[in-house]
Design brief:
The chain is 32% helix and 31% strand. With 328 residues, the chain is of the alpha+beta class. It has 3 domains: 101 residues, no CATH class; 140 residues, Jelly Rolls; 76 residues, Phage tail protein beta-alpha-beta fold. The strands form 3 sheets. Strands 1, 2, 3, 4, 5, 6, 7, 8, 9, 10, 11, 12 and 13 form a 13-stranded mixed beta sheet that branches. The protein has a 3-stranded mixed beta sheet with strand order 15-18-17. Strand 4 and strand 5 form a beta hairpin. The termini are far apart. It comes from Mucilaginibacter defluvii. Keywords: Membrane, Transmembrane, Transmembrane helix. InterPro entries: FecR, FecR_C, Ferrdict_sens_TM. This is FecR family protein.
Length: 328
């Protein structure tokens, strides 16, 4: 296809409101550099003949705006107003480019997925400057670019978010039944799929709104506040942390348990190390401990926990662990 045919084809697509963004940019550049507009004459004439037979679309419609633009240009062309015509077509195309950007339906975003394995963390930098640190056995689905009126990502597991502030584009995290909505702040979200793992949001700075969509529960949190929804519950349990930074101790491979029941300890260890930890006694599961572990193996932590609680643990293929009051 020669240059003349390409010009005519692009203009025809433009006037028919079927050109892509790339084709529109190509046409605009051709018009900007053109010494004359003879190559566009046939396309203009054909459109003029068709447009004269139909009613003028409403001005609020982008296709209608383009038709009115073309009809005026062709009228000017027929009058041989060469200089004004050349100037007008550039100005109108510039306006059309603005309208194209304003009214064109955004292209579907392209998503990427970041994942972590057992006992590993990963930092993900999003297109808007937001920094996300994934905890072990977690995944984050996010777009290459945020081109809508809000920034949305999808989390499974746990992550620490340092959200870049943008008042015009709220940041929304989908994590199972949990919906977290912010403008710019730092906080953690824990939403592992296992039933034993409670849903949790803890705020380090700023303000966060969190909603459980099934229970229709809503909480607004500020620094140091934490909202937890345990399995089978319909309300958030709200707590105030003395040291909010403890919520991200896992970034430094540190686990902090402060008056935490063994059921929750087992859930945290299971998620971190990608194993199954079973407590076969309800009374034992409710027993609470306070301890800090850093840089230790799972076996080392279990030895310490069972020593504190005067229990024992057994393992099957280093994948399933059982904590029991009965000595084996």
């Amino acid at each position: 296809m020669d240059q003349s045919q390409r010009k005519s084809e692009l203009l025809k697509k433009y006037m028919g409101n079927t050109c892509t963004r790339g084709e529109f940019d190509e046409l605009f550049e051709m018009l900007r550099q053109a010494d004359n507009f003879d190559d566009f004459d046939l396309a203009f004439k054909n459109h003029w003949d068709k447009a004269s037979q139909v009613a003028t679309p409403k001005a609020a419609n982008l296709g209608g705006i383009r038709q009115n633009v073309v009809m005026r240009l062709w009228s000017m062309r027929r009058g041989r107003v060469r200089v004004k015509y050349a100037t007008a077509i550039l100005l109108i195309c510039g306006a059309a480019l603005f309208l194209f950007n304003r009214y064109q339906k955004p292209e579907a975003p392209v998503y990427q997925t970041a994942q972590t394995s057992a006992a590993k963390t990963k930092v993900v930098l999003l297109a808007d400057g937001t920094r996300v640190t994934l905890n072990a056995n977690s995944s984050l689905r996010y777009p290459d670019n945020f081109n809508a009126d809000k920034r949305e990502v999808y989390l499974t597991g746990e992550a620490y978010f340092e959200v870049f502030h943008d008042a015009e584009k709220p940041f929304v995290i989908h994590s199972g039944k949990l919906l977290t909505h912010v403008l710019g702040t730092t906080f953690t979200v824990s939403a592992y799929p296992q039933a034993a793992s409670p849903l949790n949001v803890t705020v380090l700075t700023g303000k966060v709104a969190v909603k459980h969509q099934q229970a229709n529960a809503l909480a607004v949190l500020t620094r140091g506040e934490s909202a937890t929804m345990s399995y089978g519950k319909t309300r958030f349990e709200l707590t105030k942390l003395k040291n909010p930074e403890d919520a991200i101790a896992w970034i430094d491979d540190k686990l902090i348990f402060e008056n935490t029941d063994l059921k929750q300890v087992a859930a945290v260890l299971s998620n971190k190390y990608g194993v199954s930890i079973i407590i076969n006694d309800k009374k034992l599961a409710d027993q609470r401990i306070t301890a800090i572990f850093q840089g230790q193996s799972l076996q080392g932590i279990l030895k310490a926990v069972t020593k504190i609680t005067h229990t024992n643990y057994t393992t099957v293929n280093n994948n399933t662990y059982t904590i029991s009051t009965n000595k084996q």
